[in-house]
Amino acid sequence: MDFVLALHSHLPYVLNHGRWPHGSDWITEAALDTYLPLLDAFGALAREDVPAPVTIGFTPVLANQLRHPTFAREMELFFAQRITACDEAPASLAGTGDSDLLPLVAFWRERLVRLRALFEATGRDIIGAFAELERDGRIEIIGSAATHGFLPLLARDESIRLQLGLGYAEHRRIFGRAPAGCWVPECAYRPRGPWHPWPDAPASGVRRGIEEHLADAGFRYFFVDAHLAAAGHPLNLYGGRLDEEPQTARTAAIAPFAPLAPAARSPYRAYRVSHAFSSGDVSVYVRDPRASSQVWSRSEGYPGDEWYLEFHKMRWPGGLKLWRVSEAGSDLGAKGRYDPAHALERARSHAGHFSGLLRRIAADDRNRKSGVVAAPFDTELFGHWWFEGPDFIADLYRTLAAQDTVRPTTGSKHLHDAPPQVAIRLPSGSWGANGDFSMWLGEQTAWTWERIWALEQMFWDIAPAALADPAAHPVLEQAARELLLAQSSDWQFIISTGHVVDYAERRFREHCDDTESLVKALIAGGSALDAAGRRAEELHRRDDLFPVVLPAIAAAVSGSRALAVG
Questions:
Q1: Whether residue 448 is found in the same domain as residue 370
Q2: Which run of H or of E encompasses 267?
Q3: Is 523 exposed, middle or buried (0-12, 13-18, 19+ CB in 10 A)?
Q4: Can you give the pTM of this predicted structure?
Q5: Do 385 and 319 share a structural domain?
Q6: Can you list the positions of beta strands (E) in 10-90?
Q7: Over the stretch 257-314, which tens digit does the pLDDT of each residue have?
Q8: Domain for residue 230, yes or no?
């Protein structure tokens, strides 16, 4: 049986939008805690000649930031601040009677110096270092929508085409090769059918399914949560079961795939999501609930082990984390001192346990030759939220290399070796709370969608005329960037969780207001367009991403696939 570990790396655009706590510190912290430690772990495995074929994605909005000169400068300042905190900590600890924590300060300082040296060794180019691992055949890098827009809730197909078409083109520009896989934001999927997600949503007839847009953009596979496959049926284009309806010209396109009986809807296989209206087929991986919960579960997952680093307790000033999780549910004041060596032993033990779980799944599955365990996670879980996560991943691949029951592989390699033989039609859903869209569209967030839907209509109604006028292009391009940034699913997610709501609302309104002012200038033309051109330049200096967006707008308007596959 194959094993595909898929990591999804994403942060909204934060450069030039403040520093602490939700500005550039957000991305520098992720780089220090997660991206650099993963590079360090992959480098160690490469030197040991241990295969670690991780499938990792970077959203275009994140990749643009990690390659930006501003990020490199912010990273340098962040390292300096943390190392200074280590240098100042001994005197502070002695003054508070906490000298027993001094060895941990030395641990952090050594780690910071080592990771700073790694950052410099990459040429301050984290993205380039991951791209080199892919060129060496060690990992696969997949793409995503441009700014992580929640695709099923966008009102215009042009918006979905822009998110995916620009995402595909940006991935190819940044990584030097086209992505095969796509991390669909929030694993959110909607099939072809009527679209009316909210009483105030714009009137709409039958909308194309997300898999159709993925195929048109050039992507070959994506991931969904387990409940979507469990609830799905092998339906034809008109809603009938394939094994109940005589073959017609339309069903012939997917007739070679065996019908899927409800009892056989296993998460341990990839499926084809086929549609006669689509210009191509895409495959889908199903998140394995057993393997995923072993890592994600708050009560049973590995990160809750008492010996791992406690995320929430830190020492100020400086932000050093010196304590461990300790007893489940213990107060922050009762946390014990962190022991790095013991924590690494626990990571090694948990890696062995996870490897055993994969082998048990393989032994239980009747479809071993073409079976696959897909375990998709947010990349930032490993290192940022779970400090020992990168060590766990490295030890997992070392353990898997010593057995022959489970074969680690990438998403593309599994599909090449075991092409899916079963077609399935999926229902709507996501990997969010309740498995639906409610985390992003509810009473608290409906106002954001009403604003986005109105802006979509304005933008796409004027886009064809603006494309025909070269003088309007700079304003059109920046209006597209601001609209894309407003569409980021992060804003609704933050609002729904109730954390830093004011920040999410401010950022959302800011991008919406800027989109609206630029689009109104496109509509008005004349002197208004001249003034908007100057404003577009200012905004581009602030929101400096997606340097070549105009062809993606044109392709979204025309519905052309030229941008994706040309």
A1: no
A2: none
A3: middle
A4: 0.92
A5: yes
A6: 55-58
A7: 333 344 457 899 999 997 655 556 899 999 998 888 889 876 778 999 999 999 999 9
A8: no
Contact between 441 and 491 (Cβ < 8 Å): no
The first and second tokens of residue 450, run together, are: 């009403």
359 plus 449 within the same structural domain: no
Do residue 393 and residue 342 come from a single domain? yes
Rama region for 176: left / alpha / beta (φ>0; ψ in -120 to 50; rest): left
Q: How far apart are CA 418 and CA 359, in angstroms?
A: 19
CATH number at residue 534: 1.20.1430.10
CATH of the domain at 334: 3.20.110.10
Radius of gyration of the chain (CA): 24
Q: How many domains does the chain have?
A: 2
Whether residue 284 contacts residue 271, with contact meaning beta carbons closer than 8 Å, is answered with yes
Enter the tokens of residue 143.
């793409």
Q: Which residue, 353, 349, 368, 351, is CA-closest to 407?
A: 368
Distance CA 185, CA 513 (A): 24
The whole domain housing 486 covers 442-565
Give the residue numbers annotated as catalytic, written as ranges: 186, 378
Q: Which two tokens stand for residue 544?
A: 């400096």
Where would I find the H helices in 405-549? 411-417, 446-467, 473-486, 490-497, 501-524, 526-542
Quote the tokens at residue 541: 């200096």
Q: Which among 309, 272, 267, 273 has a CA at the least distance from the CA of 292?
A: 267
Tokens of residue 287, six digits = 């998140």
